[in-house]
Amino acid sequence: MNLPPDPIGVVGLADYGHRLRDGRTTVVKTVQDYLDRIERLDSQLRAFVYTDPESALRAASAIDALLASGTDLGPLMGVPVAVKDVLAVAGMPTRVGSDVDVEDLVGAEGGFIGALRRAGCVILGKTQTVEFALGSAGTNYRRGTPRNPRDPHHFRVPGGSSSGSAVAVAAGLCALAVGTDTGGSVRGPAAFCGIFGMKFGGLSMPDDGMFSMSRSLDSLGLFAPRAVDVAIAWEALSGQTVPSVDLGAVKLGLPRSYFFDGLAPTMAACVRGGVDALAAGGARVVPFDMSALCETDAIYTDVARPEALAMLGSERFQEMRPRLNPDVAHRIAAGLEISEQRYLAAQRRRQVLLSEVHATFENFDAWIAPVKQHFPPIYPGDLPTADAETAMESRCFGPTRPANIFNLCASALPIGLRHEPLPAALQLLAPAGQEARLLGLSIACEQMVGSASLPDMSSWLHST
């Protein structure tokens, strides 16, 4: 049996909406195509941890009936969506990537998932995540690591922690996917998998019904093949209009401090090519330095690690520790070494620097920077040595934490396959609350730099 084509990923949400409303397709057919693709491909990709085909098809049939009766719920009506398994979805289990039951820390389905339902989305299932959303490689040695669909020959990591959501979009297993981002967990996987990812500002969307790795730094986000698809979703969910942006009137800040440290030469060449393309398109790119950015990692550690430990509770963590992924347990245990005074000092310093960082945007429409330092490495296996795990994790780092520390919204913009057969990406950053403007800018930039087309997954049917 041939693999059904991705019914939305290639054409986009707007075209799908036109075809749905003029009768060229139905929601049931679209959902069935995605379910068939999941059935054929996901045994290799491991993007999903739970699907409910019967429920999805019932919902699709109900939406078709609504549309036939003259009820139109808007541009997300009938769009199949996957949800990172740190958010509660009614009728589906929430495992947060763990063998340990922490569903009591998640709660009931929250406002963001409810908004997707009211907009007419069909939820296909839950996607894999790094345990407790705590890791940048996308690995989960106990419950399964999703495979990056960009390389049919080698098992490469997808980036984390929203690993399954990025893989599902890149492989054409859903049209839109929900992720969360505490230090790069949407932007990193988007970059590694060659799709568009957007991290919203911390308070821009309701975050109830979500496992919180760090209450100070967590934010919601979305994945789609292109910026315009996330823009359509943002308009439908927020009620805001994404403006058209003239790249010739844009001034982009290029922060040399922190963001370009440790950049691999080939990645640096890709980033330079993307920045040069935007400058050729009319954008004014202005390098600048900011010493405050160099404090990012220290503040991140002193805030995120204690908050992760506090979410679980020290006693509960010690009890569950033998059943956790060793790498995740090690990161949480770091919170035991950080005193309350040190945590509070980091929060105070963060607030001081936050105003300094936001002041730079009086001179720039956005910042532009790399997302990752390296291209996605090969997965070392479900039982790696400590050295192999550490080496892989070091190659998955990227300068994404400032967006969370300083409450910025940020997008990961694929810049195509330039110097390698793997994708690279640029990061656009602006203050929280400017999501609509940043999406308009992302669309304008995407038109200049191009993007990496979605991979042809038909070859995966015959690969091992």
Automatic annotation (TrEMBL):
A GO MF annotation of the entry reads: 2-aminomuconate deaminase activity
Give the InterPro entries listed for this entry: Amidase, Amidase_CS, Amidase_dom, AS_sf
Q: Which UniProt keywords apply?
A: Hydrolase
Organism superkingdom: Bacteria
Q: What class of enzyme is it?
A: hydrolase
**Keyword Hydrolase listed:** yes
One Pfam short name = Amidase
Does the record bear Zinc in its keywords?
no
EC number of this enzyme: 3.5.99.5
List, for all copies, the residue spans of the domain called Amidase.
30-439
Record-stated family:
Belongs to the amidase family.
Q: What is this protein called?
A: 2-amino-5-chloromuconic acid deaminase
